[in-house]
Design goal:
The protein contains two helices and 51 strands. It is an all-beta fold and 685 residues long. The strands form 13 sheets. It has an eight-stranded mixed beta sheet with strand order 23-22-21-20-26-27-28-29, with no helix packed on it.
Length: 685
């Protein structure tokens, strides 16, 4: 929230070198840092009453030429969709009239800049211009709502005195800490005020920092990365009227987690790019050691995204690099609402802003167990005569380059969908939350999703409703958003938490926010019971009249240990094979295959027995042959069959034996149908 009444005193000249893109970063120390008392013990800062301010839209100039053809990745409308999952929790966040231990919140600005972060037991939400802490299970407010600058009480300077908004709250799951930040753009130098919790308790004490900027640092967006807290800005002149390009900064995360003095390293782009998003780490698997933070934005054309690679070196800042922009070709798109950016209809109200000139918060990054790395992000696009959400899953290769893995445009009917936020769970499912409205409906909050194995570019999980708005925003106020947030629960890495705004009754400056959680199918489900099997040794040589033994080892590969029964088949005439013991449970070894050769002495050659052969059909087999090519036999054994509700291991029912007689005897093939003697191995549940 930028206070317009101060605009005339902020017309300061900006040094041209400050935002010049160069090979070396700007390095600045924090202007001040300290340690706060516990937040829960601080008296609330003063609420602003009786002043209603609409934050102006500071648009990013664009040279993108609209794509006038049909959207090439538009998902077919409502075909074959699963029923939407229901919310797990669903409660009001901060909004007009909401009351908690800190008092009652009254809207004094628009838009709300809604975002929330989730930790082990709490949800922390920030809006323009308050914060609150919620019990994650019940939705009850345990602290707040209080003005955000309450957190800087006693800090001094603009961070304490001014409460200007554009807040971001995030949870650092690597350190189990909270980061709360907002800008200060009332007095110069303009600042970003950043607080990092000392403990996992969001109501406890914080390490507090102020970082100075030349120019207006609009629309800050933060991402957590192992080596830094990365933050992006749309930089304007001090009056907020002239776009100067984007700026990307890295805060010294290691020092800020301990309360030590910290620096920031910043790079800038040209005016061709804005609305950059730093990658924000989700999940429990770290990116490769030393990997740069990928930063993404809309590209210079309507068929591209742009990305940069930011590698920070805290020991030798001159070695820090900001590589890019690299253009990434994507399916063509047209920004929603054209040059005005405002065309979202609502029943009983005026048009709302789409903010289609930028990617929407967040660029959620995740590394999966199989080693691949994904980023998901989204923006609002034109779909015929309405608006939908274009989303992307980008993959990051070993050289930290990005490619498009899949993309889609979600616009399942004639309603408008925008102000999205997107994330992935540990199973690779993707969820998308958004606002929706039309000329016949009020602005509402909904979500959809897809499962990891679904057809590329589609959201298949139906559309869930978090809340249906009962009011429209008055025609004198078009501001909406400016962002929403979809986060993943750090406890199970499966539950999504979404926060966005809605209007409870027709009016202006009466918005509320809603916080809800939901979970897509398949994530966190117990693994099916399964096991592996191996033989040692895998090859035996058995002389006539003798015997040999191979030991079978089993191991549980997923699920729980179950009882498994073994059998042996495929022995040629005159030889026998047996197992001892024939039944095992779970992990085990010492299950011996004992082979006795009782063939006639005139056969004259030993058997070579190979245990553990996997044939082309996927069976686990026992292969035997006479040395020197005198005989050959094979049996297919142990084939996995996956049923609708259980996994079974079945013995394959065909054995094949081939014999070659001495000195040119004709070849003879015998196919034995084991039929009723088929053995079945069931993984009992």
């Amino acid at each position: 929230m930028f206070r317009l009444r101060h605009a005339m005193i902020l017309l300061l000249a900006l040094p041209a070198t400050v935002l010049a893109q160069s090979g070396r970063p700007q390095v600045n120390r924090d202007s001040y840092h300290d340690v706060s008392p516990p937040l829960r013990e601080m008296p609330p800062g003063p609420h602003v009453v009786g002043i209603l301010e609409a934050e102006p839209v500071r648009r990013i100039p664009s040279s993108r030429i609209p794509s006038f053809g049909p959207d090439p990745v538009l998902q077919p409308r409502r075909t074959g969709l699963a029923a939407a999952v229901a919310p797990v929790t669903n409660f009001d966040g901060i909004g007009n009239g909401v009351t908690g231990p800190g008092g009652t919140f009254t809207v004094n600005s628009a838009p709300p800049d809604t975002n929330a972060a989730v930790g082990p037991t709490h949800v922390v939400e920030t809006v323009n211009t308050d914060l609150a802490v919620f019990n994650k299970t019940t939705g009850a407010i345990v602290f707040g709502p209080v003005p955000i600058n309450t957190l800087w009480s006693g800090f001094g300077g603009g961070c304490q005195v001014d409460n200007d908004g554009d807040p971001i709250v995030t949870y650092d799951r690597l350190a189990d800490r909270w980061i709360i930040s907002q800008f200060q753009v009332t007095t110069t130098p303009f600042q970003q005020c950043v607080a990092v919790s000392q403990t996992p308790d969001p109501t406890g004490a914080y390490f507090r920092y102020a970082f100075n900027y030349s120019g207006f640092p609009d629309y800050p967006k933060m991402g957590v990365w192992p080596d830094a807290y990365y933050i992006t800005y749309n930089m304007f002149n001090n009056a907020g009227t002239s776009f100067l390009g984007a700026q990307v900064c890295a805060f010294d995360r290691a020092n800020m987690l301990t309360g030590a003095a910290a620096t920031q390293q910043c790079f800038s782009t040209s005016t061709s790019f804005g609305g950059l998003l730093p990658a924000d780490l989700d999940g429990t698997i770290l990116p490769p050691a030393g990997a740069p933070n990928p930063v993404v934005a809309l590209g210079a054309t309507s068929t591209s995204l742009a990305y940069w690679k930011f590698h920070v070196d805290w020991t030798t800042p001159a070695n820090s690099t900001f590589t890019g922009p690299t253009s990434l070709t994507v399916p063509s798109y047209t920004e929603a609402c054209g040059a005005s950016g405002s065309c979202i209809p609502q029943s009983g109200g005026g048009s709302l802003d789409s903010l289609s000139d930028r990617l929407m918060y967040r660029a959620a990054y995740r590394t999966f167990a199989d080693g691949h790395h994904s980023i998901v992000t989204n923006h609002a696009v034109t779909v015929g005569t309405n608006v939908g959400v274009r989303w992307y899953e980008l993959h990051v290769d070993a050289a930290n380059n990005l490619s498009v893995f899949q993309s889609g445009t979600y616009a399942p009917d004639t309603a408008f969908r925008w102000m999205g936020s997107i994330a992935m769970d540990e199973a690779g499912n993707i969820a998308l939350g958004f606002s929706t409205s039309s000329s016949a409906t009020k602005p509402s909050i909904r979500y959809t999703g897809r499962l990891a194995g679904d057809a590329s570019g589609t959201m298949t999980q139906g559309e869930g409703i978090i809340i249906t708005g009962a009011g429209a925003q008055g025609s004198t106020l078009s501001r909406w958003g400016d962002y929403s947030s979809l986060q993943i629960d750090p406890v199970d890495d499966c539950t999504f938490w979404y926060a966005n705004e809605y209007i409870p009754a027709n009016g202006t400056f009466n918005w509320k926010t809603r916080i809800a959680s939901f979970k897509l199918p398949g994530c966190g489900a117990p693994a099916a019971d399964d096991f592996s099997i191996a033989a040692n040794p895998a090859s035996l040589t058995v002389a006539q009249g003798s015997s040999a033994t191979s030991t079978i080892n089993t191991a549980v590969t997923s699920g729980a240990a179950q009882s498994v029964t073994f059998s042996v088949s495929g022995a040629p005439a005159g030889a026998t094979a047996s197992l001892s013991p024939s039944t095992v449970t779970g992990h085990g070894s010492g299950r011996d295959v004992h082979v006795d050769d009782h063939r006639n002495r005139d056969v004259g050659k030993p058997l070579d027995v190979r245990v553990g052969h996997v044939d082309a059909a996927g069976g686990f087999g026992l292969r035997h042959r006479r040395i020197a090519g005198v005989g050959l036999g094979r049996v297919r054994r142990l084939r996995d069959v996956l049923g609708d509700d259980e996994r079974r291991h079945r013995q394959r029912g065909v054995g094949r034996v081939e014999h070659l007689g001495p000195a040119g005897r004709r070849e003879r093939q015998l196919r034995a149908d084991l039929g009723n003697s088929r053995r079945q191995l069931d993984a009992d549940r």
